[in-house]
């Protein structure tokens, strides 16, 4: 069976985004309406500046008692997020997520066209297991090498 690409597996193939000056409250409302766990922060020129995730809302807003109606996404976003091309295999994307500790990867073409976000929820169990096996193998190799 051919491995799926992240673009083939993305549940949402539209870009859910806000501008950097949007409030955190506005970003949370956009995420809720779109039923997604992240929102991309894009400037007027369609340049990807950052990403805000559910985890960011919890750790950078709620846990720090910031007022979501006053704080902007530029204040709390992850700047210059790790991006992947649409032809990336799902297991490879999940491996990146496991190794880097995040659950969302913006999908961007070589021409810097933003296609959306690949979420770990877009992967099926078989693909997640393949990535976990590879991560475990990589850890064993790194331990053996020193």
Itemize the secondary structure elements and their pairings:
Elements: H1 6-9, E1 17-18, H2 24-34, E2 38-42, E3 48-53, H3 54-62, H4 73-76, E4 78-79, H5 90-100, E5 104-108, E6 114-119, H6 125-145
Parallel strand pairs: 1-2
Antiparallel strand pairs: 2-3, 3-4, 5-6
Helix pairs in contact: 5-6
Describe the 3D structure.
- By secondary structure, the chain is of the alpha+beta class.
- It has one domain: CBS-domain, CATH 3.10.580.
- It contains six helices and six strands, in the order αβαββααβαββα.
- It has helices at 6-9, 24-34, 54-62, 73-76, 90-100, 125-145, and strands at 17-18, 38-42, 48-53, 78-79, 104-108, 114-119.
- A four-stranded mixed β-sheet has the order 1-2-3-4. It has a two-stranded antiparallel ribbon with strand order 5-6.
- The model has no long low-confidence stretch (mean pLDDT 92).
List keywords for this structure.
two-stranded antiparallel ribbon; alpha+beta; CBS-domain; 146 residues; 6 helices
The share of residues in helices is 40-55%
Poorly predicted ranges (pLDDT <50, ≥5 residues)?
Answer: none
Report the CATH C-level class.
Alpha Beta
Please give the alpha-carbon distance between the first and last residues.
36 Å
Give the number of domains.
1
User: CATH homologous superfamily name?
Assistant: CBS-domain
CATH architecture: Roll
Query: How is the CATH topology named?
Result: CBS-domain
Main sheet properties:
4 strands, mixed
**Helix/sheet category:** alpha+beta
Beta fraction of the residues? 15-25%
Q: Quick one: how many beta strands?
A: 6
Strand order of the largest sheet: 1-2-3-4
How many helical elements?
6
Mean pLDDT across the residues is 92
Give the overall form. Answer: globular
Q: Could you spell the SSE succession in H and E letters? A: HEHEEHHEHEEH
| CA-based gyration radius | 16 Å
